[in-house]
Design goal:
By secondary structure, the protein is an alpha+beta fold. The protein contains 7 helices and 11 strands. It has 2 domains: 121 residues, Roll (CBS-domain); 72 residues, Alpha-Beta Plaits (2-Layer Sandwich). Strand 9 and strand 10 form a beta hairpin. Helix 2 packs across helix 3.
C-alpha cells in the first residue's frame, strides 16, 4: 500500500497571508486539523489546529496579536511524502518526527496530505479487519520455511487467508497475525496446536474477566 492510495487529494490549503482567525474558522468549517500553507502556489509550510490554539491563547508566553498571519507562526519547510512512498515509511517518519501529517508532493506540486487518521485507516485495510473473518495469532521460530509451513496448513484445508502480518517478538521468534475466511477459529487453533504450532490467540481455553 502506497501513500497515493490513502492520501486526501486536493487538500484544503491556506496562504501565508491568511489571518490566524480565518485559518481557524476554515478548520472549524472543514473539520480538518492540518492545512498546507502555500505562497505563490508553492508549499512553504504547514499549520495545525494546535498551532492556532497556542498562537492565540492568552496563556501563551507571547500571544500573537489580532490580525496576525499564518506566515508568522507556521512550521516552515515541512517534511513531505511522495506518491509512491510506502505507507509504513510515512508512518515511520511521522512517528520519529512526532508530527501529525505529511503533505504529498510530486515535482514540487502539492497533490495531497496524509494524516495519522489515514494511517489508522490503512492499518485496518492491511489487517483485513473489515472483512468477515477470524483472527489467529501464532508465534513462529524466525527461520526460513516456518511461514510457508503455517500458510500451508490453511491451504491444505482450503481456507483463505485475508491478511497476514508479522512482527518480531524476541531475537529468534516472530508473531504472525492472520485473518482467515472461517468462523471456526478455535477449532483451527486447536488443530494448529496439535500440528506443533504455538498459538497465542485464540487461547486454548475460554477466559473470563
Amino acid at each position: 500500500m502506497l501513500v497515493k492510495d490513502i492520501m486526501h487529494k486536493n487538500p484544503h490549503t491556506v496562504t501565508t497571508g491568511t489571518t490566524l482567525e480565518e485559518a481557524y474558522r476554515l478548520m472549524q468549517e472543514s473539520r480538518f486539523r492540518h492545512f498546507p500553507v502555500l505562497e505563490g502556489g508553492r508549499l512553504v509550510g504547514v499549520v495545525t489546529d494546535r498551532d492556532l490554539r497556542l498562537a492565540t491563547s492568552t496563556l501563551a508566553p507571547v500571544p500573537f496579536p489580532a490580525g496576525a498571519l499564518v506566515g508568522d507562526m507556521m512550521t516552515r519547510d515541512p517534511r513531505t511524502a511522495g506518491l509512491l512512498d510506502p505507507v509504513e515509511d510515512a508512518a515511520r517518519v511521522m512517528r520519529e518526527l512526532k508530527i501529525g501529517c505529511l503533505p504529498v508532493v510530486d515535482g514540487g506540486e502539492l497533490l495531497g496530505i496524509v494524516t495519522g487518521i489515514d494511517l489508522l485507516d490503512a492499518l485496518l485495510l492491511l489487517t483485513g479487519v473489515g472483512n468477515a473473518s477470524s483472527r489467529i495469532e501464532v508465534e513462529l521460530a524466525d527461520r526460513p520455511g516456518e511461514l510457508c509451513r503455517l500458510t500451508g496448513y490453511f491451504s491444505e484445508r482450503n481456507i483463505n487467508i485475508h491478511s497476514l502480518l508479522t512482527y518480531p517478538d524476541t531475537p529468534d521468534r516472530v508473531r504472525t497475525v492472520l485473518r482467515i475466511g472461517s468462523i471456526e477459529a478455535r477449532l483451527l487453533a486447536d488443530g494448529l496446536r496439535q500440528a506443533g504450532f504455538e498459538v497465542v490467540w485464540p487461547p486454548a481455553k475460554p477466559w473470563h474477566r
